[in-house]
Amino acid sequence: MDVFWAGALWALKIWLYLIILLIMIPSMFGFSLGISEIYMTILVKTLEWATLNIQKANSDEGTLKPSSSNGLIQRENGSMEKELEELRRSRPKPPVGGDFTLSDCFYFIRQGIESIVDDQVTQRFTSEELVSWNLLTRTNNDFQYISLKLTLVYGLGIIVRYCILAPLRITLTVIGVSWLVIGTSAVGLLPNWRIKFWLSELVHVMCYRICARGLSATIRYHNRENKPKKGGICVANHTSPIDIVILCTDGCYAMVGQVHGGLMGIIQRAMVRSCPHVWFERSEMKDRHLVTKRLKDHVNDKKKLPILIFPEGTCINNTSVMMFKKGSFEIGTTIYPVAIKYDPKFGDAFWNSSKHSMVSYLLRMMTSWALVCNVWYLPAMHQQEGEDAVQFANRVKSAIAHQGGLVDLQWDGGLKRAKVKETFKEQQQKNPWYKCCTVQMNSGVAR
Amino acid sequence: MGSRASRLLREEEIEEIKKETGFSHSQITRLYSRFTSLDKGENGTLSREDFQRIPELAINPLGDRIINAFFPEGEDQVNFRGFMRTLAHFRPIEDNEKNKNPSATEPLNSRTNKLLFAFRLYDLDRDDKISRDELLQVLRMMVGVNISDEQLGSIADRTIQEADTNGDSCISFNEFIKASFVVNIHICTVVLVLVNI
């Protein structure tokens, strides 16, 4: 028995040394031994091969998969309005009563049915639909028997993902997080000299780099010259808590958020010791003035790190950008927009918080193929004259959506949990046809 | 898509729905996965709440009426069969369906059935007549608060006057059909083209 335990201990030791030597040390100092690159190349090849096989199998059956962007229905944008308009014009104008016809309701019926079959909003809160099966069993494309070869590869994938990658990644993440707690606590003991900021940044970046390895993240940063600078606010679209790791691997940010309990609480307290973050008590969050004031104070101190905010306020499935809450745009400072786009082929990065807990989500991420994402730094944006916070927020949102190839939506991400507010109905009244209908009715009555 | 969903939907059931509604096999499985994603209670039926959770439908001025159309009188749950039956009204009329044997029962997506769906939206008390009151209610939903009661009243009066042929100050279904004869049904009813998978 003793021999067994000694053996196990020895294996564990070797395992840890290997991790430290091959992954930890390189990742801490930001260079790579090329192992992950080799893994990615093999992965891309495998998935390409799988896609080809699936396509071949599908074309044999004579079916064609729809592209994911199409959705369920073909909306004939605008044609309906035009037809109705023509219909109106061709009819003789009645002397009284404007221009209403009984069939006008068809416009709303059609819109209503279309939204029942396929709507723009609720689908953003579930996993993105994939065009082709990626040999994982978690998206719309579940396990499907296509050929013996593919099934074998799928089985091999399970073994690799759960028996090799998962333990490796979990070890890395545990090391990374404990490094953060220990490192920041230690740095926090130092007096407020310049070296403290420098060390704090180093500790943060190292930790995030290790965590990023723990998710096998391959991140491509574009336009690095636009990186957020001190005294500004960085806003990004939000897909999952991993966004933070992704962004922080390339630079440090001050976090804004609520004080948590448990493990999160320990991490938060350790982090705030080494460099200033903005944590709020739950009761303080409700006080908008206080929140704005503390953010303003932070931003005005040019020595402090740029604040990182996800103005959507909730995780969206990485196909679209939803309404930005105006809070961070009211502070009147430089906004540094960042667009993050994950590649769904390698694993679904979206955190469906109503379905999965944080831990089970992280485990899913660690048993996925990899995390591949693109990060674009956009040029800094300022509020223009005569532009209110909401308009500014929309402008920034459009810029992010455009850069990341995401759909720009006006809807509030809060709809994930709440119902539509009555005020949203007013939005519908801004609809061009709706307006025209009302105006025509008005003018008809006036005549 | 929806291999998980189709597993729960029995093959015979799909056949029956296919016959009744004219949807294709792949359309049915796709719509079934949509149905299950709307079904937050996960009990195989949809409630009014489930529909109202679709934001775009919730802001639709006629949203509540459209939702109502899915529920048989007095019931507050609709199963997949019922869901599909209502959706079938909006399937485009295909060319080969037009020249079908006229003695067979009319398909759900015929012009008459499409118009009947719209008619029922107005006819709240289901007495097969649209009264002035019922018309006013729908008008109010469509225009919001932008028009005065008086103006809306005159619109309603004019509309009834135009459509009413037997002088009972109501619009019957026959009168409704006549009033909307100019409507090109292909455009004005829902052209819901499901992507063929």
TrEMBL record, chain A:
It is found in: Endoplasmic reticulum membrane. It is a multi-pass membrane protein. Keywords: Acyltransferase, Endoplasmic reticulum, Lipid biosynthesis, Lipid metabolism, Membrane, Phospholipid biosynthesis, Phospholipid metabolism, Transferase, Transmembrane, Transmembrane helix. Pathway: Phospholipid metabolism; CDP-diacylglycerol biosynthesis; CDP-diacylglycerol from sn-glycerol 3-phosphate: step 1/3; Glycerolipid metabolism; triacylglycerol biosynthesis; Lipid metabolism. It comes from the Eukaryota. GO terms for biological process: phospholipid biosynthetic process; triglyceride biosynthetic process. The chain crosses the membrane at residues 14-35, 146-164, 170-190. Belongs to the 1-acyl-sn-glycerol-3-phosphate acyltransferase family. This is 1-acylglycerol-3-phosphate O-acyltransferase 9, like. It comes from Oreochromis niloticus.
UniProtKB/TrEMBL annotation, chain B:
SMART domains: EFh. Coiled coil: none annotated. GO terms for molecular function: calcium ion binding. It is found in: Cell membrane; Cytoplasm; Nucleus. Keywords: Calcium, Cell membrane, Cytoplasm, Lipoprotein, Membrane, Metal-binding, Myristate, Nucleus, Phosphoprotein, Protein transport, Repeat, Transport. Gene3D superfamilies: EF-hand. PROSITE patterns: EF_HAND_1, EF_HAND_2. Pfam families: EF-hand_7 (PF13499). GO terms for cellular component: cytoplasm; nucleus; plasma membrane. Residues 26-61, 110-145, 151-186 form the EF-hand domain. GO terms for biological process: protein transport. InterPro entries: Calcineurin_B_homologous (IPR051875), EF-hand-dom_pair (IPR011992), EF_Hand_1_Ca_BS (IPR018247), EF_hand_dom (IPR002048). PANTHER family: EG:114D9.1 PROTEIN-RELATED. Belongs to the calcineurin regulatory subunit family. CHP subfamily. This is Calcineurin-like EF-hand protein 1. The gene is CHP1.
